[in-house]
Specification:
The protein is of the alpha+beta class and 808 residues long. The protein has three domains: 9-268, no CATH class; 302-533 and 554-585, 2-Layer Sandwich (Dihydrodipicolinate Reductase, domain 2), CATH 3.30.360; 613-797, no CATH class. The strands form seven sheets. Strands 1, 2, 5, 9, 10, 12, 13, 14 and 25 form a nine-stranded mixed beta sheet that branches. It has a nine-stranded mixed beta sheet with strand order 24-23-22-21-15-20-19-16-26, with helices on both faces. A hairpin with a 7-residue loop joins strand 23 and strand 24 (518-526). Helix 6 packs across helix 8, helix 21 packs parallel to helix 27 (724-746) and helix 21 (638-664) packs antiparallel against helix 28. The termini are far apart. The structure holds NADPH dihydro-nicotinamide-adenine-dinucleotide phosphate and the ligand O=C1O[C@H](COP(=O)(O)O)[C@@H](O)[C@H](O)[C@H]1O. Residues 17-22, 32, 34, 125-127, 170, 239-242, 244, 268-270, 347 line the site of NADPH dihydro-nicotinamide-adenine-dinucleotide phosphate (NDP).
Length: 808
């Protein structure tokens, strides 16, 4: 826990916890500290144009070109708060500056304000630590980042001198009283002088700049010539496990809150586990705090590109008109981490990825993305709109969720652990480390548009992205260039939140030259190339906002209720039904089920995500799958066609499984322990087909599939004509499965099948392959390998039909 305090206009009590958690400072994740310490806040002499707090952010919104200094009203960006914002952790004022009283020439009214700010950070936790040890710990990650890197050593030294530590129990009034005593020793007194020539200005100054919202009670008619006041502001940052929030808040509020000045509390997530526990937490917090003292932090809201969402939408004419169901096909919100829980399993296992990432970070992004235009940039106006959009959403359905958990995987001689290998995780835990979900907003703007969320740990990369896929161009003149590949034919806007922040729009473009060839190119805003300034860390922004009393990026209690209302039913169902997650190898792209979920919702023409990577299509027409899909191209080689046919068969199996496989083959399903069957999951995880797989595929190739993900694996393998076993494998596995099933159900005689099997074969018969000989080769190979040759009637029904391209 941390207590920031400062005397004068910004006296902040801040406590971070010397714990294992990561506080991101300077763009890196660092240990999150439970500490309170002191940062001296500089007083910045500046010419300022004062505004009320309500307008404060309008000032900030003024464009500042990152590359070229803006000539526009620079004074508005130079408020002490802005400076404070730019310099909190990095630019510590010199002692001279601290002691100096700043003089602000307030417009023509000549109001003059003298401010001296003391800023101190105190760490508070149970662990024993001296101030020097704390400073040493902080110094390991502290850098001079935002400001001009001048006198860094000196600045950091000054900063560290303001860090202190006090050890105590979270539920001990006495320990908090001791903390209070120590804080007071550092707080001292301060003088706030307001010289003014105009009462109105003086009050605006006081309200808007000096004492933030605390001044609201001050009547503007008071003619103040000089105010000598001693204000103490304390900001408690509860970077501690949620089960001790209330103890800490109780003690802080009764034994260590500021007597004169504000006391605020930043609460870290998770805010409960579901609607009930969240409501209980809010109720308990409100015993000791008012809502406006509570700052529920969601650090994703402090990320630069998330903040930029509203700017992008509301200050660019080109985007806002497109921001609706009319033009947007789907929106994808993606979070992935390339590491597992690694030591945080104790916390994580009680929450799981849906609560850890989706219910808060991704949902908050969604709300900002989808909200209607707020009345103003005022925190309440923005939060009102967010609540409205959250309340227009349909609670998540189990059918629209896929959960996964990472399993151990060996790559390059290194073995990566399974989630359950973490010794802070209970054995046999079913907690999802991956989830994909489709959410819907039932309002006029977004009706029918899927918002696809995906979040996972131990995946192949670390990133956070918003991807907006637009609808196809109706009657596109250039259709011929794209065929039926919807992804190529339409635009996509990508907002890369991290790493390497960027915004880019995928467009179709003519490749320069005499011919007419189109390609996909990006209109690209790459932050590192465009802006020389480093991007502040989310926590830097949010801590500063809390100090300033800016609530825009913090979660209001009604927002929280609305968010939990969306996720609580499905979380309960997952837990009550003990849904087994799909297992995915550490470092992979996650469970296959997620691709099917996405395929179901991304758009009718886009049902075969695995085929997308190949950027080719075949002359196969599939009729009988829910959404009609067709792929056509003239240059496919035989084994690729075969592959398509095989995967399509797999889709049919999935499609029809629910009707009859579920009760005919419960053993198989149970053995695989999966709720949902998929061809890939069968290949990778079910014991029986794995035997076939093992006969045919070299171990190294098997491993490659698990570790690289299916699309790159296919691309690399299918592009090698030497790899003839692939051809066999793609044919054999489904046939083998089918054979096994036939045996299981009909005693090995497929001809005895009746209605259920017909249910697969009939639609399958409508799959057209354009190369008969390929199938015959495969059938012969599989007969050799499995000892079973499908009866000719079956072969015929599976439809080896030479079929010219039906689609140009
Ligand atoms: N780590 C992350 O990436 C993120 C964390 N959060 C949230 O931030 C908060 C802190 O996270 P993190 O630092 O990882 O948490 P930790 O589990 O590391 O806890 C922080 C500190 O709290 C004290 N503490 C831990 N467990 C207990 C306990 N059972 N009873 C009393 N005190 C305890 C410890 O200090 P001591 O023993 O010295 O008192 C510890 O150093 C949590 O609410 C977390 O959910 C939010 C987003 C991201
Ligand atoms: O809130 C959380 O976020 C982190 C990821 O944050 P990032 O800023 O590094 O992307 C995640 O690791 C953690 O599980 C979760 O609690």
């Amino acid at each position: 826990m941390a207590t920031l305090y400062s005397t004068t206009c910004r006296s902040i009590s801040y406590s971070l916890t010397p714990s294992s958690s990561s506080l991101s400072i300077n763009g890196q994740n660092h240990q999150r500290l439970n500490f309170s310490s002191c940062i001296a806040k500089r007083v910045l002499p500046a010419k300022v144009s004062f505004h009320s707090r309500r307008n404060f952010h309008l000032n900030v919104v003024l464009m500042q070109d990152g590359a070229v200094a803006t000539p526009v009203t620079p004074v508005e960006n130079e408020t002490p708060f802005k400076k404070l914002k730019d310099g909190l952790l990095s630019s510590v004022p010199s002692t001279k500056e601290i002691k100096e009283a700043a003089t602000f020439d307030v417009n023509k009214d000549e109001s003059t304000v003298s401010i001296t700010v003391h800023f101190t950070i105190f760490g508070y936790a149970r662990s024993k630590m001296t101030d020097a040890e704390l400073r040493n710990m902080v110094s390991k990650t502290l850098t001079c980042r935002i400001d001009k890197r001048e006198n860094c050593d000196e600045k950091m030294d000054q900063f560290l001198k303001r860090c202190f530590y006090h050890s105590g129990q979270y539920g001990s009034q006495q320990n908090f009283a001791e903390l209070d005593k120590k804080l007071k020793e550092h707080e001292g007194g301060f003088t706030l002088k307001i010289f003014y020539a105009n009462t109105r200005i003086a009050c605006i100054v006081a309200c808007g700049i000096i004492v933030g919202e605390m001044c609201l009670g001050i009547t503007c008619s008071i003619a103040v010539h000089e105010v000598r006041e001693f204000l103490i502001y304390r900001l408690f940052y509860l970077s501690i496990p949620p089960n001790i929030f209330i103890d800490a808040v109780k003690c802080a509020s009764s034994s260590a809150s500021s007597g004169i000045g504000w006391t605020r509390v930043i609460v870290e997530k998770p805010f409960g586990r579901d609607s009930d526990s969240s409501a209980a937490l809010t109720k308990a917090l409100k015993q000791y705090l008012d809502e406006d003292q509570i700052f529920r932090i969601d650090h994703y809201l402090g990320k630069e590109l998330v903040e930029n969402l509203s700017v992008l939408r509301f200050s660019n004419l080109i985007f806002e008109p497109l921001w609706s169901r009319q033009y947007i096909r789907n929106v994808q919100l993606i979070f992935s981490e390339d590491f597992g829980t690694e030591g945080r399993g104790g916390y994580f296992d009680n929450y799981g990825i849906i609560r850890d990432i989706m219910q808060n970070h991704l949902l908050q992004i969604l709300a900002l993305f989808a909200m209607e235009t707020p009345v103003s940039l005022d925190a309440e106006d923005i939060r009102n709109e967010k609540v409205k959009v959250l309340r227009s959403m349909r609670p998540l359905q189990l059918d629209d969720v896929v959960v996964g958990q990472y399993k151990s995987h060996t790559k390059g001689g290194v073995t990566y652990p399974a989630y359950t290998d973490d010794n802070t995780v209970p054995k046999g835990s079913l907690t999802p480390t991956f989830a994909a979900a489709a959410l819907f907003i039932d309002n006029a703007r977004w009706d029918g548009v899927p918002f696809l969320m995906k979040a996972g740990k131990a995946l192949h990369n670390k990133s956070a992205e918003i991807r907006v896929q637009f609808r196809h161009v109706p009657g596109n003149l250039y259709n011929r260039n794209f065929g039926t590949d919807l992804d190529r034919a339409t635009n996509e806007l990508v907002i890369r939140v991290q790493p390497d922040e960027a915004i880019y729009l995928k467009i179709n473009n003519k490749v320069p030259g005499l011919g007419m060839r189109l390609d996909r190119s990006n209109l690209h805003l790459h932050y590192a190339a465009r802006y020389s300034k480093e991007i502040p860390d989310a926590y830097e922004r949010l801590l500063l906002d809390a100090i300033e009393g800016e609530r825009r990026l913090f979660i209001r209690s009604d927002e929280l209720d609305a968010a939990w209302a969306l996720f609580t039913p499905v979380l309960k169902e997952l837990e009550e039904k003990k849904i087994i997650p799909e297992y995915y190898p550490y470092g992979s792209r996650g469970p296959v089920g997620a691709h099917y979920l996405a395929a179901r919702y991304k758009g009718a023409e886009n049902n075969f995500p695995y085929l997308r990577g190949l950027r080719k299509s075949s002359c196969i027409e599939l009729v009988g799958y829910k959404e009609h899909a067709s792929y056509c191209a003239s240059d496919l080689r035989g084994f690729e066609r075969l592959f398509y046919g095989t995967v399509l068969c797999g889709f049919l199996v999935i499609k029809w499984k629910r009707e009859f496989f579920a009760h005919l083959l419960p053993v198989q399903m149970q053995r695989c322990q999966f709720e949902m069957e998929s061809v890939l999951h069968v290949l990778r995880d079910c014991p029986l087909p794995q035997n076939v797989w093992n006969v045919i595929i070299k171990p190294s190739d098997r491993e490659a599939l698990s570790s690289t993900g299916f699309i790159p694996w296919l691309i690399s393998n299918l592009s090698s004509t030497a790899s003839i076993p692939w051809l066999i494998m793609f044919g054999v596995v489904p046939w083998f499965l089918w054979k096994w099933r036939s045996r299981g159900v009909f005693g090995g005689d497929a001809s005895l099948h009746s209605t259920p099997l017909n249910a697969i074969k009939n639609p399958a018969a409508r799959i057209h392959f354009s190369n008969e000989s390929v199938l015959n080769v495969v059938v012969a190979k599989q007969a050799a390998l499995t000892g079973w040759n499908p009866p000719s009637t079956v072969k015929a029904e599976f439809g080896v039909v030479v079929n010219p391209c039906m689609y140009p």
